[in-house]
Amino acid sequence: SAILLAQSPPAEVPVYEVARAAEKAITVDGRLSEQAWKNAAGVSFVFPWEQQTGAKQQTTARLLWDSQFLYVGYECEDAEITAQFLKHDDPVYRDDAVEIFINPNPGDGLNYYGLEMNARAVLYEYLRIWPKLMITRLDFTGVEIATHLDGTLNVAGDKDRGWSLELAIPWENFRELTRELPPKPGAEWQINLNRWDGVEPRRRLSQWSNSGLATPNPHNPERFGRIRFR
Length: 230
Hints:
The chain is an all-beta fold. It contains one helix and 13 strands; from the N terminus they run βαββββββββββββ. The protein has one helix spanning 35-39; strands spanning 15-20, 43-44, 59-65, 69-77, 97-103, 112-118, 123-129, 133-135, 144-150, 162-170, 188-199, 202-207, 225-229. A hairpin with a 4-residue loop joins β6 and β7 (123-129). The model has no long low-confidence stretch (mean pLDDT 96).
């Protein structure tokens, strides 16, 4: 099936320099309070689809790495935090959720890993063999995830402030697509960062790199941004 492209996706994809953190500098508690996070550059998500009716709530993401882990941190403004799914590999993308898509070997095609996590820190992960297959039986090992909620979960009518999520992925989980683990300084991978916010019908998808698709859909690996390990 053909992929419908938006009228004018931006020409350039964004690039992010991933700073190296000191060993054991990060404790995964969902708070992004360590100095290493404060020093890491933040990226703000864009809202590509005007046909969506959900509120445009800001998301800032940061990445770090060390010899053991790739770290991802998200800070999400959210006046109404909602997450119903509780079990590993539940369809958490229907909740308030964040995602990272990772292609650790861009020179070898468009295949990528997907990790999707809701505000309860429930993980759904897979290997996408683009464009035909999504291998959902893949289970990452040793992943650490935590969230911190500044508000109340699933309580309608009150005013929440937001939530943050911290993720640490051991390098060995990328072994299907690359042998170069951990990556060497200067290595470039392709990723995208996404957020699903709100519940239908008032829902909004935002992204780091605009997927360039005509309808709200994050899956377009040709439009992933680039990260460079420092």
